[in-house]
């Protein structure tokens, strides 16, 4: 989890896979810097939204979809891949891309056309969001870098 949260606007982060021993990396956001990530994979806590490369979407501790952005067996995440996460706080949406290929809208409010119609803000305009990742193996490594910001960073 990063240390600077997002409170408004549209923001993008790149999760650069530096070492991936298995394809069980989960990327997304959480609305609390602790979010239970020390013991659970991202998305298995009530304050997190995540995409796992097995094609599942998770929000608030439950699986919301099993077929989002499925990467075929010939291309699971490997060293050098880049996962882009786009959060639009105003639109209440979260989307993902892999190596520049847009996977479509993952999370959004009802009527948004998202794979999982689960709004990100969920009625709390004061919520602060943090980009986050969970790794499956001790040796896995991911670097998070900002890819674009239009809005407010919370300290």
Q: How would you describe this structure in keywords?
A:
single chain; 155 residues; five-stranded antiparallel sheet; 10 strands
Write the layout of secondary structure elements.
Layout: E1 5-19, E2 26-30, E3 48-52, E4 57-59, E5 62-65, E6 82-88, E7 93-98, E8 101-107, E9 130-134, E10 141-154
Antiparallel strand pairs: 1-6, 1-10, 2-3, 2-9, 3-4, 4-5, 6-7, 7-8
SSE class: mainly beta
Q: What is the chain-wise order of helices and strands? A: EEEEEEEEEE
Helix segment tally = 0
How is the quaternary structure best described?
Answer: single chain
Report Rg.
Answer: 14 Å
Say how many strands there are: 10
Q: What overall geometry do the principal axes of the alpha carbons give?
A: globular
Strand order of the largest sheet: 8-7-6-1-10
Provide structural commentary.
By secondary structure, the protein is mainly β. 0% of the residues lie in helices and 46% in strands. The protein has no helices and 10 strands. The strands form 2 sheets. It has a 5-stranded antiparallel beta sheet with strand order 8-7-6-1-10, with no helix packed on it. The protein is globular, with a radius of gyration of 14 Å. The mean pLDDT is 79.
């Amino acid at each position: 989890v990063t240390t600077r949260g997002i409170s408004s606007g549209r923001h993008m982060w790149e999760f650069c896979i530096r070492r991936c021993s298995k394809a069980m990396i989960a990327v997304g956001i959480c609305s609390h810097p602790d979010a239970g990530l020390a013991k659970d994979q991202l998305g298995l806590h009530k304050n997190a939204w995540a995409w796992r490369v097995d094609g599942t979407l998770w929000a608030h501790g439950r699986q919301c979809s099993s077929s989002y952005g499925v990467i075929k067996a010939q291309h699971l995440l490997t060293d050098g891949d880049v996962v882009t996460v786009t959060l639009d706080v105003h639109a209440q949406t979260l989307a993902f891309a892999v190596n520049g290929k847009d996977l479509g809208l993952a999370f959004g409010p009802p009527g948004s056309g998202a794979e999982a119609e689960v709004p990100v803000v969920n009625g709390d305009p004061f919520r602060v969001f943090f980009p986050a990742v969970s790794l499956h193996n001790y040796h896995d490594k991911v670097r998070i870098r900002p890819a674009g910001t239009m809005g407010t960073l919370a300290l």
